[in-house]
TrEMBL record:
Pfam families: BPD_transp_1 (PF00528). The lineage of its organism: Archaea, Methanobacteriati, Methanobacteriota, Stenosarchaea group, Halobacteria. Residues 64-278 form the ABC transmembrane type-1 domain. Belongs to the binding-protein-dependent transport system permease family. This is Sugar ABC transporter permease.
Length: 283
């Protein structure tokens, strides 16, 4: 013990204490709360897995899970667009790369609530989207984008794709710039086409950025709340009620903190399972 250098541990001790207080303790407390009937701090009754049984047998939970899966399709679209833009802007033939990167990345800096409000105005029946489509003759009458059970979710997905594509592009740009030029030179000497070079050289070497963007996108889709709540509040009906919106309604709108904690734990387990699946597949 005397031979151990304790200085590094002393340096990281404040951050460890902050992490234990602000992260691990709330997580452990939520886990404990999910096994109780939590009315008040002084009125707590242990009920075991009753809250989980009630949540898992409720149709709204499975509807929210399906909506979250549909909402996660925006992650796939934003990753594809981000990768495409990164490949285009990484070309030496493109001039003014910094300007294009800044313009594309700008929506990510914009607060999601502000972006959601702007898109809500744009997609109203008398908004700019309907006006433009009617002007060019695509539609004859205004479309209720956010009041339609079929169109509400795709409309919300458009907002998330618009906001996140710049972040994904930046991650892929960093990955592309880290690939040595010698690898591409070897591919050209071997007579590989552009598609073969992308398929067998670029894409495998972008494994880390792909894993990062996929995991962050999936977790964001599971937790999806802010844009949906601002634009539709989970409606019409429950057409856009994701797990994040369902959790908020149960825990805070209805005041059922025990069931809300159970939903939060299930969301955490789903995120861990999906992240583990992505890591396993990326091997």
């Amino acid at each position: 013990m005397r031979e151990v250098d304790w200085k590094p541990y002393v340096y990281v001790l404040p951050m460890i204490l902050i992490y234990l207080t602000l992260v691990l303790y709330p997580v452990a407390y939520s886990l404990w709360m999910s096994f109780t009937d939590f009315t008040t701090v002084t009125q707590v009754e242990w009920v075991g897995i009753k809250n989980y049984a009630n949540v898992l047998t409720e149709g709204r939970f499975w509807n929210a899970l399906v909506n979250s899966a549909v909402y996660s399709l925006g992650t796939v679209v934003s990753i594809c667009f981000g990768l495409l833009l990164a490949l285009i802007l990484n070309s030496e033939e493109i001039r003014g790369k910094t300007l294009f990167q800044s313009v594309i990345f700008l929506p990510y800096v914009l607060p999601i609530v502000v972006a959601s409000v702007l898109f809500s105005w744009m997609f109203t029946e008398f908004g700019i989207v309907n006006s433009f489509l009617m002007e060019i003759g695509v539609i004859g009458t205004p479309i209720g984008w956010l009041s339609s059970p079929t169109l509400a979710m795709p409309t919300v997905i458009v907002v998330t794709v618009w906001k996140n594509v710049g972040f994904n592009m930046l991650i892929f740009m960093a990955g592309l710039q880290s690939i040595p030029d010698g690898v591409y030179e070897a591919a050209r000497i071997a007579g590989k086409t552009r598609w073969q070079t992308f398929r067998h050289v670029t894409l495998p070497l972008l494994k880390t950025p792909l894993v990062i963007t996929t995991i962050l996108g999936m977790i964001g889709a599971i937790r999806g709340f802010d844009a949906i709540w601002v634009m539709t509040e989970g409606g019409p009906g429950n057409a856009t009620e994701t797990l994040g919106v369902y959790f908020y309604r149960v825990a805070f709108a209805s005041g059922d903190f025990s069931s809300g904690a159970a939903i939060g734990v299930l969301m955490f387990l789903i995120s861990i399972a999906l992240s583990g699946a992505v890591f396993w597949y990326s091997r």
